[in-house]
Automatic annotation (TrEMBL):
Sequence similarity: Belongs to the asparaginase 1 family.
Any one GO molecular function term: asparaginase activity
Boundaries of every L-asparaginase N-terminal domain copy: 33-222
Protein name: asparaginase
Gene3D superfamilies: 3.40.50.40, L-asparaginase, N-terminal domain
Biological process according to GO: L-asparagine catabolic process
Organism: Pyronema omphalodes (strain CBS 100304)
Stored NCBIfam families: asnASE_II (TIGR00520)
Length: 352
């Protein structure tokens, strides 16, 4: 790709309007208000082929087109769309998600019944986890995506979106924290993770399971509303920028320089995607010790296994990651450093 094209692409992604788009249907005072925050992803993806589910362009359809594709939504809620980005979710950044959290707090505080975020599935668990920890509300925040682009046969996006808006207006969905809805399954943002690169049933909560499921457009919950054990809250209403936190993946023969380099490059925190229940190489632990002593970074030992609990860190100055997978541990560490947590407070918040 030439430089001119790259510049055009950069300019067009900067030019995304973030103003509220009201639907052109009459306002119905009997229905609740929901704002749909659109960020892009496969749900807004398109391809020239209707059988293409891998080579499509994510984030190419605007929020109004997504809403218009599901007229049933107008019977459930008065929706307004805000396009906060239109990209594959790997392109989203902590500053975009911080801004999204602040926007959602405002729209919920000013009378909306719930919020919906349309999102690429690749990092939807990071965004929804961040929102879960930073928006002070009992109203439902529902993150939704799709595994098949909007142009595919059997696209899953329209039904997912209708279920998401429905969930955002469901009284029984209150006080359950942020949620992820895909493939008829309602998952808690706190525990849910993407477990398969291609399949529709990719989102799972591991040992924590699901909160409930959809029968058509009717949500059914397995339990009464409850809060995830030890879930902290972080006030980011005045935060302008979050500290840099990196992830270092553990493997046989890892060059431990990656850890000191991360600290040298300005990381205030490092999450180790360690092996098993938090084990790491001898050289890796020594590099952590060096990075902690020289740069004052906070290091969390999470696990690359995809499930289970990390009870202890490989190095005494490190923090054991508990149930948090590396990508969730990263946002938790970022928020905790931002809030000025001491090392002892970090140990406690991760131990939940
Ligand atoms: C909305 O509900 C009415 C009454 O049940 C029904 O007649 C109409 O077809 C529905 N509209 C859509 C778009 O589902
Ligand atoms: C819902 O939105 C309408 C139109 O924007 C507004 O007039 C109304 O006050 C809102 N309702 C609540 C409860 O915020
Ligand atoms: C959350 O908001 C409520 C008011 O809606 C307030 O009373 C409470 O202190 C807030 N909690 C935090 C942790 O900021």
């Amino acid at each position: 790709m030439n430089t001119f094209l790259l510049l055009c692409l950069a300019a067009s992604s900067l030019a995304i309007p973030t103003k509220r788009v009201e639907k052109a249907v009459p306002y119905n005072a009997l229905l609740p208000n929901v704002t749909i925050y659109a960020t892009g992803g496969t749900i807004a993806g398109s391809s020239s082929s209707n059988t293409d589910t891998t080579g499509y362009t994510a984030g190419s359809i605007g929020v109004q087109v997504l809403i218009d594709a599901v007229p049933e939504i107008t019977n459930v809620s008065n929706v307004a769309g805000i396009q906060v980005a239109n990209v594959g979710s790997g392109q989203l950044t902590p500053s975009i998600i911080l801004d999204l959290s602040q926007k959602i707090q405002k729209s919920l505080d000013s009378g909306d019944s719930g919020a919906v975020v349309t999102h690429g599935t690749d990092t939807i668990e990071e965004t929804s986890f961040f929102l879960d920890l930073t928006v002070n509300t009992t109203k439902p925040i529902v993150c939704v995506g799709a595994m098949r682009p909007a142009t595919a046969i059997s696209a899953d996006g329209p039904m997912n979106l209708l279920q998401a808006v429905t969930l955002a207006t469901t009284p029984k969905a209150a006080a359950r924290g942020a949620m992820i809805i895909l493939n008829d399954r309602i998952g808690s943002a706190f525990y849910t993770t993407k477990t398969h690169s291609n399949a529709l049933d990719t989102f799972r909560g591991g040992d924590a399971g699901y909160l409930g499921l959809f029968l058509g457009t009717k949500p059914k919950f397995f339990f009464e509303a409850s809060k995830a054990t030890g879930k902290p809250f972080f006030d980011v209403s005045k935060t302008k920028e979050l500290p840099k936190v990196d992830i270092v993946y553990a493997y046989q023969g890892l060059d431990p320089k990656a850890i000191v380099d991360a600290a040298k490059n300005g990381a205030k925190g490092i999450v180790i995607a360690a092996m098993g229940a938090g084990s790491f190489t001898k050289e890796g632990n020594a590099a952590v010790e060096e990075a902690v002593a020289e740069y004052g970074v906070q290091v969390v030992y999470s696990s690359r296994t995809g499930g289970g609990y990390v009870p202890s860190a490989g190095y005494a100055g490190g923090v054991a990651g508990g149930f948090y997978n590396p990508q969730k541990a990263r946002y938790l560490l970022m928020l905790a450093i931002n809030a000025g947590y001491t090392h002892e407070q970090l140990v406690e918040v991760f131990a939940q």
